[in-house]
Amino acid sequence: MVFWQSPAVRIALSISVATGLYGISFGALAVASGLTVWQTVALSFLMFTGGSQFAFIGVVGGGGSGSAAFGAAALLGVRNAVYGMQMNRMLRPRGWRKYLAAQITIDESTATAAGQLAPEEQRRGFWTAGLGVFALWNLFTLVGALAGDAMGDPRAWGLDGAAVAAFLALLWPRLTAREPVALAVVCALVTVLVVPVAPPGVPILVAAFVAALWGWRSRGAKQEGVEQDVDAQRYEGASANGSAGTSKELS
Amino acid sequence: MSLWNWLLAASLVAYATKLAGYMVPAAWLENEHMTRIAGALTIGLLASLTAVNAFSAGDSLVLDARVGALLVAALALLLRAPFLIVVIAGAATAAVLRLSLF
């Protein structure tokens, strides 16, 4: 399939633009919080995980200490370890690619990959979204840091509505049976219940824990849809070398 | 420590956290049980990201223009609209609602 015709690539590029533009508000806010332009640019390039970056400048802007900013950013990034585990299992990057993949493992790249069913599309989705967001996020961070908040709030353009729609659209293809729908509803509810009582970033971790528990206890028929990527992995095994799927054939 | 040092330390921890996930051997995750957990985790994470982006503002719950974006996106998906149309519909809904209501 030609790169530009891949549905995952098109999804990844639209997510890259919508998310990248948010870099403007990060850049503007970081400078307003008292960071220099260089510190702002360094955060987007080196830390590269939006939630942690906003937490870091939020603490600094609120007069908090460097150590408190460090703690908030570190806590918010914990979900990326869960994403890393998922992506390693799904994409199997080798050698140096693993170290590059780690840096671009964020909400958007993980969600784009997870929203695809075929292994090739998962791979294309992850790398295009990860590198696309990285390029645009850094570019627009610089723009925001230099231009200040003259460009206004991205929410006025509806970019936060775009994010909601994008995540729902990635979830949608997986809601093919009663069990995945129930699981999605439970995890959304758990998230909403935890938001008021925990720091940002933690609700996603709690939902992930509930989902893992659900998968752990699940004894239903295979067709119920929760383990949808099994078929994709088998397909990959069959087409690549015919042996990758063996460990799953035991059941 | 200066702010620069905390900034670099926090960035290093952010990268180490991401990499830690990749260091869990994929072979450990290669069985029926882990496959189910991974599948459930995918759905749970996507549902949670949707909810966080629709209803949260920092550590509080907010009902605002984003709820409209969520409903319109769901409607577009029911009508089998392509991804880009869904995203644009969500953005347009949030922008228009904000202009007219808030």
Q: Would you kindly provide a written description of the structure presented here, covering whatever features stand out?
A:
The complex is a heterodimer of chains A (251) and B (102). Helices cover 70% and strands 0% of the residues of chain A. Chain A has 251 residues and is an all-alpha fold. Chain A has two domains: 1-174, no CATH class; 176-242, no CATH class. In chain A, α1 (7-32) packs parallel to α8, α3 (50-61) runs antiparallel to α4 (66-76) and α5 runs parallel beside α7. With 102 residues, chain B is mainly alpha-helical. Chain B has a domain at 63-102. Chain B has four helices and two strands; from the N terminus they run ααββαα. In chain B, strands 1-2 form a two-stranded antiparallel sheet. The chains are: A mainly alpha (251), B mainly alpha (102). The interface between A and B is large, with 106 and 79 residues.
